[in-house]
Write a structure and sequence with these properties.
The complex is a heterodimer. Chain A is mainly α. Chain A has one domain (4-84): Non-ribosomal Peptide Synthetase Peptidyl Carrier Protein, Chain A. Chain A is 50% helix and 0% strand. Chain A has helices at residues 4-16, 41-55, 66-69, 73-84. In chain A, helix 1 (4-16) packs across helix 4 (73-84). Chain A is globular and about 35 Å long. By secondary structure, chain B is α/β, with parallel strands linked by helices. Chain B has two domains: 6-125 and 152-207, Alpha-Beta Complex (Spore Coat Polysaccharide Biosynthesis Protein SpsA, Chain A); 237-553, no CATH class. A seven-stranded mixed β-sheet of chain B has the order 3-2-1-4-6-5-7, with helices on both faces. In chain B, helix 11 (323-344) runs parallel beside helix 13 (381-391). The N and C termini of chain B lie far apart (55 Å). The chains are: A mainly alpha, B alpha/beta. Chains A and B meet through helix 2 of A and helix 14, helix 15 and helix 16 of B.
């Protein structure tokens, strides 16, 4: 089974059609938005939609910590894992 | 865990046949029940007592004399308070309410313990051909503001009362004791600042059912109550109807900061006047009220005059704007409120709306395809919606406090599965709401948004584009959302033309493209085109522009300085 982090990296590239970006280009700890990959809040929304669809998790837009979940691939993976509950 | 402790109160007078079934259903849900025997004759009283004895957890309150529904409910609520309950779910004894919804209403009550939760009847006669035409109203009506007030079916007796607030009222004023009770207590609660949350509930009329609503008597009492409330309202005018009252600060406030709850009650009472006296009298009755707001609403007056001047310069308004024209602008707004009421009470026949079965609108509604619809605070799109809704007797209302998006989103999340109308504040769209909308569009639903009010959060996501000759801020949100939803976008306006309303509907874009490169420019171009189309419809009915604030500098916003001059004072 592919690592969650890799699944998320692939999802980001496919969702946003980042043609000139490969999976290796996305550092797990690197900020996704602003400086790092340079994505904006519309991209975040698109990624959020895909994440919900693919992983069956719920992202609550009134959650105050929303920004921190989207800060890096690693954080996103942690968020998804937590939402999905303990691994079975 | 919430501290809400609910029980059920069932006032009974003559209705005994359905009682046992209702009580069984409620006890199966573990709800404590108080049945109020409202002075029934010995025969019925015995039957009621028998039902009570046959179930655990059911208390019987017997009134020696028939005092009417209000008296019976209040007795029940008093008793519930004495037993330590915090909320009362009121259910009519005639079996017309779907008990399966009781849990939904109570869930809402425990999420919003200070609110009054009302079941909003949905007369669910599924007309197959309604699938096609009702599509356009569909399951979602997204609006920043247009949907913020609705006329509730204030007589629906399926509701959850917060006991403390209700008794505070009943102990300080005399409330109608009979059928007018349901309505009056609702209005009084709203006046006290209690939020009203509605939830759609299916209503069926069981065969052989008759109503205790005594045609003449109760109608007389209702008019009496309406008259009473109307005069009381006059004393509360400053907080009702327009409610966009004097700004404390000089700068023009953000529209969302100007409360709209008052307008709901004002509209409701206006509805009563309309119902009994008709449109003309309603307008006459309204004129002094509008005049009052015209005098005291300096900010709105300034907003109106500013707009009229711009419209005049653009050649839309021939006469030079003066206070008289501004007053007419106010009156037009008031009469649009009446149109809303008329539409919702079924007083506007479909034949009075032109364009329902014509042109692009007809084609679009026949196409089984999801779409985004942009509208604006121009004219009265609600008229159209009400008519289509009533045409199929399919009616669902959500009362939304627009500024309170968090609470509202919670509501949406809680009930996204069962509610048939969802109103979502566009400024607050996150991944959760976006996905909800995406599913809706995939279902062929239409998502309607007003594109002329900027988000509460201020400077972000605004495009400054030409509007009536000067740069004005428009929200990017609707365009971004339309882009994310990847579906066709239409423009919809409904303008009053003489005694009729006319639908204006046109294709806005096959897709709003959001390319990664030059995204902001693409969005701004879309916004600019919206403003341009809006302007060209404004020309048709310049007085039906219902943004009564400084549209070009809301909340003191200024257009961005041209590059290189930003340091200048």
């Amino acid at each position: 089974m592919e690592r969650l982090e890799d699944q998320i990296r692939r999802l980001i590239i496919e969702t946003l059609n980042l043609e000139d970006v490969s999976m290796q280009d996305i550092d797990e700890d690197e900020p996704l938005f602003g400086d790092g990959l340079g994505l904006d809040s519309i991209d975040a929304l698109e990624i959020g939609i895909e994440i919900q669809k693919v992983f069956g998790v719920k992202i609550d837009s009134s959650d105050e910590n929303l920004a921190s979940y989207f800060s890096s691939v690693k954080e996103l993976a942690r968020f998804v894992a937590r939402q999905q509950g303990p691994a079975t | 865990m919430s501290a809400v402790k609910p029980c059920v109160v069932i006032p009974t007078y003559h209705h005994v046949s359905a009682l046992d079934g209702i009580v069984s259903g409620l006890r199966a849900q573990g709800l404590p029940v108080i049945i109020v025997d409202d002075g029934n004759e010995p025969g019925d009283a015995r039957l009621i007592a028998g039902v009570c004895a046959a179930h655990d957890g059911v208390e019987l309150l017997r009134r020696d004399f028939n005092g009417g529904k209000g008296a019976a409910v209040l007795d029940g609520i008093e008793r519930a308070e004495a037993r330590g309950f915090t909320h009362v779910l009121q259910i009519d004894a005639d079996g017309q309410h779907d008990l399966a919804r009781a849990a939904d209403l109570l869930r809402l009550a425990s999420a919003h313990p200070t609110a009054l939760v009302i079941g909003e009847p949905v007369y669910d006669e599924t007309v197959p051909r309604s699938r096609r035409l009702a599509r356009w109203i569909t399951h979602i009506w997204v609006s920043i503001n247009t949907a913020s007030f609705r006329i509730l079916d204030s007589m629906c007796g399926f509701r959850v009362y917060p006991i403390a607030a209700t008794l505070a009222i009943s102990r300080s004023v005399r409330i109608a004791q009979r059928m007018a009770f349901d309505t009056e207590i609702l209005v009084r609660l709203v006046w006290r600042g209690v939020d009203v949350i509605t939830f759609p509930v299916p209503v069926t009329y069981p065969p052989g059912n008759y109503s205790n609503f005594a045609m003449w008597d109760d109608n007389l009492r209702l008019s009496g109550m309406h008259a009473k409330l109307f005069f009381l309202m006059l004393t509360r005018l400053p907080f009702l109807l327009f409610s966009r009252i004097r700004a404390r600060r000089r700068s023009s406030r953000h529209w969302a900061a100007i409360g709209e709850r008052g307008s709901y009650v004002g509209l409701w009472i206006l509805g009563a006047v309309y119902k009994f006296f008709g449109r003309r009298i309603c307008l006459v009755a309204l004129a002094p009220i509008v005049f009052f707001f015209f005098l005291t609403g300096a900010e709105q007056r300034r907003g109106s005059l500013l707009y009229l001047r711009r419209a005049h310069e653009a050649g839309f308004v021939p006469q030079v704007p003066d206070l008289f024209l501004s007053f007419r602008h106010f009156l037009t707004f008031a009469s649009s409120a009446i149109d809303k009421l008329a539409a919702w009470t079924g007083k506007i026949p479909a034949s009075a709306v032109y364009g329902v079965d014509e042109g692009e609108f007809d084609r679009a509604k026949k196409r089984d395809q999801g779409a985004v619809i942009f509208t604006a605070h121009l004219g009265n799109p609600e008229v159209l919606r009400a008519i289509a809704t009533l045409r199929f007797r399919w009616r669902v209302n959500v009362l939304v406090h627009t500024a309170n998006a968090v609470r509202f989103n919670r509501l949406v999340n809680e009930f996204s599965g069962s509610s048939t109308v969802r109103v979502i504040q566009v400024t607050d769209v996150g991944p959760d709401t976006a996905i909800l909308l995406q599913e809706a569009v995939a279902n062929g639903d239409w998502v309607v948004m007003a594109g002329d009010r900027i988000p509460v959060t201020g400077n972000e996501r605004i495009s400054w584009v030409p509007f009536l000759g000067k740069l004005a801020p428009f929200p990017q949100g609707p365009h971004i959302l339309a882009g994310l939803l990847k579906c066709p976008v239409h423009l919809l306006f409904c303008l009053r033309e003489g005694a009729h309303h006319r639908i204006y509907f046109e294709r806005f874009a096959e897709r709003v493209e959001l390319p990664r490169k030059g995204r902001n420019e693409a969005i701004s171009a879309s916004v600019a085109r919206y403003a341009e189309r809006l302007e060209s419809h404004l020309r048709i009915a310049p007085l039906q522009w219902f943004n009564f604030f400084d549209f070009w500098h809301p909340a003191g916003l200024k257009p961005p300085e041209p590059a290189g001059r930003s340091g200048e004072q």
